[in-house]
């Protein structure tokens, strides 16, 4: 085999050392060498070079390398490992996912002037307009903090690019609407949400008035009274009148009253922008006090210079996906007021650091019920944590009959049920069929009402994904009824994840579930499977035999079940791609070439058992496939697998 394709383990330390020196020289003198010189290298040498290149070099080379069938995945993963450390778990299976994560992390660090050891080592390559521009073309999420004045001045072209690329906006700092210095942040938010393509908003802080400003006009017809007063305050109107006076007769309506009208559509009438000079925020128009506005449309006029590119009419954007990471009672009240007319909202995620109070959740349920009663409602995904009681999950389900995906986390308060207000029993709740397709329930309580969970499953015949974690039952009870219900009522289930539950007495029900199912993913993690099995090896063999009879199953996890002593039985489940099989596949692909290039994920396969055959197969596949591969050490991997069992 030629030296250029020999396995790294077969090379001498001197060869490896010289090779490292050459790679560092290529990185340092890349501009002088040029991209073509790198592309002329043999494929194995390019693959070894990738982890040594800078982020900008990887980004420039990627399109040409992909055309040759070479993936830059290893290069991006190398950057992530350098940034996060060798012990950080990195699980990005595709080239684009790994690249996006690198660019997302670095864009935020470099743009806001943050630093870490990686940035310090690479500051020369990163602190450049070309890097920010390249990163902005890749990222889909923008994290907004302050200051962002650069985007309203020298980096304005970057803002225009972000408007075209950003799909999700995160607000990680409270914006005080009473302070003039926050107007730049409000303007950037307006540009991304109203002029850009962003449809998802993630709020990381508790700031009710800011939440009111963000939600106003972007889906809901509700106008928060406090926000209305602020937007129509004397200080706001002063700058508005000054701007209108200097606009050569052009008129711009803020459309606030139109948005408040119950008879109007949920999207306000577009507002024509005026062509005007920049209006100084420090200018005294009527009195000696400073004047400024929080109206997004007036902000848009004020921050656009007279010689700037006209963006046309200001329109209200639509928030289709809303996630509030720190949702306190005040923020929830703002949301509950907006929800009944929030017709464009498709996905809602609420997370509270402390457990939600039950009357806050009941208020949310009432708002969701009002929204669901409109035929224009779009809400299909709901996630909320942390609920104080399991029964509130049923209230939310009945309030949102069109939801197809529900994720809840439940943690019972310490004082238990004695302070509970009267609540309807399950028998009094709606028992009609639910359109649920995905359900995740994570529980942290001493005892869970199994009857409630199984009743929800019976009402959900279209369920395809179920994740239940931490469910505890009274002494002497069994989870067998849960598994039996799945067999009887949920025939379309493709993904089942049961975690931190006692299933040691449920082997018959597990076997029965596997006999006639369409499962593609199955996880029984930390379920004490062997705890009560009298003949552990024989019972495990029955389980393995049943699993092998499920043709659709491609993912199986039995972690944390103390199976190490019986790992030889599990070996029968192995479906690794062997080198000889991969070579045969490559031959058939050359005989019957695909109409377009395939992406082939070959990670976690024992190619090192026959490296010659494996590498030959890879070379034959590269003209037809983008290959995702990584190093594999069969001995170490098996040891790690057993140690985690």
Automatic annotation (TrEMBL):
SUPFAM superfamilies membership: RNI-like
Domain of life: Eukaryota
Phosphoprotein listed as a keyword: yes
Keywords per UniProt: Leucine-rich repeat, Phosphoprotein, Repeat, Ubl conjugation pathway
Record-given protein name: Leucine-rich repeat-containing protein 41
Organism in which the protein naturally occurs: Etheostoma spectabile
Top-level taxonomy: Eukaryota, Metazoa, Chordata, Craniata, Vertebrata
